[in-house]
């Protein structure tokens, strides 16, 4: 098992490069700056970075029942939820939790397709071990790491941290079968935040859940705290722009052909209009 995973910065450009190194096509990661606005466009999932130690203390009174843990093994094993067994691997865990729960909406590539098929119906611990035993994932992950890895006490090896006093952790929020799931590799089970309201997009459900979580962690202070970071996994904008460009070029040609018919001018003259 590879135990040399390094810490990754919370940077959407870095995460996009990591997605590409996994072999995934047509996906990028972008930062979310304002939770007061509706999140537009298709979103595959969200990756949330938070200060783990402080939030753990603020949520200490929250019981497992209130967190809506999914304890049904059949449900848990049917989705991609993996326990984090490798130190500093939570960034890759968070990405995989989004990419491998997308119901064939994403072209995964060879590496992640093999991982998905191999871990099908495995329990969370075995999925976590499978991640740790894939050199391709470790190589891609470490290629984007900071030059100096951090070392944590044994009891905190699952957390990414710049300093022992400031441990940070990534978790994912994804829509699965009409419900919003929170997937945190340091917790024993997935958390089901339930379905959205009538005719509501799942991203609106997420906005309410994450705003409440941030309010709890900051003691009621405004949620825009530098200790938190939120990123969205979305379709590649470049492909969307290329498709728009193709459509514009097609429309331009149709217009030029119509002008040619009207004016009875040679087609090459219409290009000058």
In brief, what are we looking at here?
This protein has 273 residues and is α+β, with helices and mostly antiparallel strands. It has helices at residues 12-21, 52-58, 73-78, 90-99, 109-118, 124-132, 135-142, 202-217, 237-263, 267-270, and strands at residues 27-31, 45-51, 160-163, 166-176, 179-183, 191-195, 229-235.
How would you portray this structure in words?
- The protein has helices at 12-21, 52-58, 73-78, 90-99, 109-118, 124-132, 135-142, 202-217, 237-263, 267-270, and strands at 27-31, 45-51, 160-163, 166-176, 179-183, 191-195, 229-235.
- By secondary structure, it is an alpha+beta fold.
- Strands 1, 2, 3, 4, 5, 6 and 7 form a seven-stranded antiparallel beta sheet that branches.
- A hairpin with a 2-residue loop joins strand 4 (166-176) and strand 5.
- Residues 61-65, 149-157 and 161-165 have low confidence and may be disordered.
Percent of residues in beta strands? Answer: 15-25%
Helical element count?
Answer: 10
Number of strands: 7
- Write down the overall geometry: globular
How widely separated are the two ends?
65 Å
Class by SSE composition: alpha+beta
Mean pLDDT: 81
Q: Work out the radius of gyration.
A: 22 Å
Helix-residue proportion: 25-40%
Order of helices and strands: HEEHHHHHHEEEEHEHH
Q: Which regions contain 5 or more consecutive residues with pLDDT less than 50?
A: 61-65, 149-157, 161-165
Main sheet specs: 7 strands, antiparallel
Oligomer: single chain
